[in-house]
Amino acid sequence: MHIEITEVSPRDGLQNEPQPVATEIKVELAKRMIAAGARRFEITSFVSPRAVPRMADAAEVIAQLDAGPDITLQALVPNLRGAERAAQTAVQEWVCFMSATESHSQANSNCSVDEAVARFEPVLALAKAEGKRAVAALAASFGCPFEGVTPVGQTVQVAKKLHALGFSELKLGDTIGTATPSQITQMVHALRAEVPDLDLILHLHDTRGLSLANVLTGINLGITRYESSVGGIGGCPFAPGATGNVSTEDLVHFLHAEGYETGFDLDACIDTGHWLSKALGRPLPARLLKAPPIGTTIPLDGITRAVG
Amino acid sequence: MHIEITEVSPRDGLQNEPQPVATEIKVELAKRMIAAGARRFEITSFVSPRAVPRMADAAEVIAQLDAGPDITLQALVPNLRGAERAAQTAVQEWVCFMSATESHSQANSNCSVDEAVARFEPVLALAKAEGKRAVAALAASFGCPFEGVTPVGQTVQVAKKLHALGFSELKLGDTIGTATPSQITQMVHALRAEVPDLDLILHLHDTRGLSLANVLTGINLGITRYESSVGGIGGCPFAPGATGNVSTEDLVHFLHAEGYETGFDLDACIDTGHWLSKALGRPLPARLLKAPPIGTTIPLDGITRAVG
């Protein structure tokens, strides 16, 4: 079975780095991940350059990358202004992101949940006119740093509004890494009951060590689309102690070990993780940057007896 | 549903610390975990004090702890000599540990797999005479640092021999953290088919981020007994890049979030993890030592808008 992985390191991964990251690093990161097998990227964000100065190079990253038609580039588009900027670039998919909770919506998008939904009506119209694909993304789908656990019904209500507006794909963001297998199961069942033709993508963080348990749950539910970031970089600015997205290395390693096909080359992902760690000047949380893949062996010769 | 957790930090956790740990720290660690709800410990190891000098205080730890009858203490017993020393103490359960692979058996126990099984015949006889419980433990049940993935049939064969010798409980050790959900599923099905009345305990490491996915798999298979170490300390000396056991904080947090009962107080586990981190002078890998439990909230007031 093929599992689709969207590489989100250039956007979600690098957005919250302590120091701004040079455009060249963003471009090289994407190029290395293309060589490692990535075919779909969340590459940048067309937010206001005044609000998020480090995403001011959005158009430049896309131009320099010059990815070609077999690579699908997604960019975050918060409103019509962002969509108009995105329309001037080679980005094929616009990620219309908002929050499932009022507090996170106020903190992250400076508007209410309903206002956020309303903002996307003209964006969808422009996407249609420009021949672009629009994908909805819902932050705090499972938990909110200000409100606690997000009720399933609340996320489902927002998903219904987005679907009614015209979206056919929804990224469920476990922004602060609080989703659990049972919550994912309930959420997916509820969404399939209420909005059966909405295609679901799981965007998971490993903050509490649950990301691969949640991927396992998703796969058992038939979900074949996931997001990850090489090195495990990224994280919500409002999530205390948050670690990053589930790492591409760990996700690919797990999926391959379980017999799934991803199109990624694990060794090349690990090499890119090491390169990125060096470029950012810090160790990154991906496990496969420390431990070798399952099945790796060391020679027995010369081993000192441990216990005797 | 109740899930039993054996706290292994005093033995498996501390055995491979870079620096030897004072007896008083081992005893205080156990006392703090008793206060946090632990009722069964892997407390120490009666290996040869010459081979493993840092376990020379085995009897002293048990005497100082003076745990009382409602706490079950386990100690590792590699052979009859170890069992004779254990018999002089208040330890109620003897853990007869060996390896599922020849190479790991040579490296860890300096004997073949069959020799290791044979060593336990007199140990079982002594346990019976002394009124002690004997539990088998099989390192490298899922993977071996020298041989790669352990075939399911190989672990099953050793389990059959241990069962035939008289053991009714088996700890399956994922010594180097390579077990996957599908491998655990195959292993448990095969063991239940071949040795149906052998009670299984899962001893998992989080080396590749899979420990909680494996716990989830175990629970779905009806396995209710697990081992963990507070802080996530521990690890096999032959496992390159190995991180420790699944941490008690992360395991208890996950189980409580999913509605299982453990008898542990999560906050007290986390406090003990912080105390242990300070005592060992280094950060420990448990996620709940960095991230707050699911449902924790922060005030929205004063948050700077992130995206706008």
Please describe the topology of this protein.
The structure is a homodimer of 308-residue chains.
Chain A: E1 4-7, H1 9-15, H2 23-35, E2 40-45, H3 58-65, E3 72-76, H4 80-87, E4 93-99, H5 102-109, H6 113-130, E5 133-139, E6 143-144, E7 148-149, H7 152-165, E8 169-173, H8 181-194, E9 199-203, H9 211-220, E10 225-228, H10 248-257, H11 266-280
Parallel strand pairs in A: 1-10, 2-3, 3-4, 4-5, 5-8, 8-9, 9-10
Antiparallel strand pairs in A: 6-7
Helix pairs in contact in A: 2-3, 2-11, 4-6, 6-7, 7-8, 8-9, 10-11
Structure description:
Two copies of one chain form a homodimer. Chain A has helices at 9-15, 23-35, 58-65, 80-87, 102-109, 113-130, 152-165, 181-194, 211-220, 248-257, 266-280; strands at 4-7, 40-45, 72-76, 93-99, 133-139, 143-144, 148-149, 169-173, 199-203, 225-228. Chain A has one domain (4-289): Aldolase class I (TIM Barrel), CATH 3.20.20.70. Chain A is of the alpha/beta class and 308 residues long. Chain A has an eight-stranded parallel β-sheet with strand order 1-10-9-8-5-4-3-2. A two-stranded antiparallel ribbon of chain A has the order 6-7. Helices cover 41% and strands 15% of the residues of chain A. Chain A is built from eleven helices and ten strands.
Biggest sheet record of chain A: 8 strands, parallel
Rg value of chain A: 19 Å
Level-1 CATH class name of chain A = Alpha Beta
Which spans of chain A of ≥5 residues are poorly predicted at pLDDT below 50?
none
> Which percent range describes the beta-strand content of chain A?
15-25%
State the assembly state of the protein chains: homodimer
Series of secondary-structure elements of chain A, N-terminal to C-terminal: EHHEHEHEHHEEEHEHEHEHH
Helix content of chain A: 40-55%
Number of helices of chain A: 11
CATH topology of chain A: TIM Barrel
Compute the average pLDDT of chain A.
94
Sheet/helix structural class of chain A:
alpha/beta
Quickly count the domains of chain A: 1
Kindly report how far apart the N and C termini of chain A lie: 46 Å
Q: Any idea what the CATH architecture of chain A is?
A: Alpha-Beta Barrel
